[in-house]
Specification:
With 245 residues, the protein is an alpha/beta fold. It has two domains: 167 residues, P-loop containing nucleotide triphosphate hydrolases (Rossmann fold, 3-Layer(aba) Sandwich); 66 residues, no CATH class. The chain has a six-stranded mixed beta sheet, with helices on both faces. Strands 2-1-4-5 form a four-stranded antiparallel beta sheet, with no helix packed on it. A hairpin with a 2-residue loop joins strand 4 and strand 5. Helix 2 crosses helix 3, helix 2 packs parallel to helix 4 and helix 3 packs across helix 4. The longest helix is centred in the middle third of the chain and has 14 residues. The relative contact order is 0.17.
């Protein structure tokens, strides 16, 4: 089943040249797809289009066979923002994770059950009554993910999920994402994270889809990566050096 389809999508910000002119791709249910590109390549804008926060000037975007309705909220897609402080706005963790679920119209006991289950899923049950602004960066990231997971989306979009995390919390995040049985798109400059999680990779540059295919093959192509503002990850350079030794 096709979880996501973009067909001839075009978009430009007001008084700016077109960022996307004819973007085409599809993602199957259950795929984990990494998205890379230099700053300004269009990664965050793409996510906002896929969520319906922005409306394309031309073309169509479909999620699970239905055209995206930009005037209506849909819980089938969840976006985890690059900066957790942009996403967390309630006083306590319990209230923040509950916010989206409450807007689905669930009964209070069902809401609290979802909150407890989701915090347990991300390994953050002990944070449930903490004040949000007192959390560490890694804790805020987990709570942000929990708030989206609580609405039980079918598709999740992660914008720079490892940004600002220390090594321990980064590994904890990778292990968590690897367990989620969801369709995912992950935009990141953390190429090693994408190698761990995403068999498929899309490379964007100035709104154009330059490459779409096997993550290791694309990232190992030094000429391609350099031409579009990227570099071969250390693990692949080391692997190549071993093979040539």
């Amino acid at each position: 089943m096709i979880a996501l389809r973009c067909a001839e999508v075009a978009f430009a910000y007001p008084e700016q040249p077109e960022l996307f002119s004819a973007l085409n791709f599809s993602v199957h249910t259950g795929e984990r797809v990494g998205i890379i590109g230099a700053n300004g390549a269009g990664k965050t804008t793409l996510f906002h289009l896929l969520c319906g926060l922005l409306r394309p000037q031309r073309g169509t975007i479909e999620r699970f066979g239905n055209k995206v309705d930009h005037a209506r909220f849909s819980p089938d897609v969840g976006l985890v923002f690059q900066h957790a402080d942009d996403q967390l706005f309630c006083p306590t963790v319990r209230e923040d994770v509950a916010f989206g679920v409450q807007n689905l119209g669930l009964a209070p006991d069902q809401v609290q059950q979802r909150v407890a289950q989701t915090l347990a899923q991300v390994g953050a049950s002990e944070l449930i009554d903490r004040i949000v602004h007192q959390l560490s960066g890694g804790e805020k990231r987990l709570v942000s993910i929990a708030g989206v997971l609580a609405m039980q989306p079918q598709l999740m979009l992660f914008d720079e999920p490892s940004a600002g995390l220390d090594l321990r919390n980064r590994r904890r995040l990778i292990d968590l994402l690897a367990t989620l049985d969801l369709t995912m798109l992950i935009a990141s400059h953390d190429l090693e994270l994408l190698l761990d999680l995403c068999p498929r990779l899309m490379l964007l540059d100035r709104g154009k889809l330059i490459a779409d295919g096997d993550s290791q093959q694309i990232m190992a192509n030094a000429e391609l990566m350099q031409r579009h503002g990227q570099e071969v990850p250390c693990s692949l350079r080391f692997k190549r050096a071993l093979n040539n030794a």
